[in-house]
Design goal:
Layout (H helix, E strand, L loop, with lengths): L7 H9 L4 H8 L19 H11 L9 H10 L1
Helix pairs in contact: 1-2, 3-4
Amino acid sequence: MAKQIKNEDQYEALRDQGYSKEKSARIANSPNSGKKGGKAEKYENRTKEELYEQAKNVGIEGRSTMSKDELIHALRNN
């Protein structure tokens, strides 16, 4: 059974930009999917727990052993 994409328009736009199916789905299914850029709180201003939850939401592996800086790096580059 295939996973449901929450924001199909965003998913398709990301695929058109060359993002992988997996990364496009993670972004389109994130809780902030579709929000305008610049509105989200900066990663540096979030707690480690908030970063961990975001990493969990987008499916970053190894997040439980990561430091705050490592979580920020993984969220920005995943």
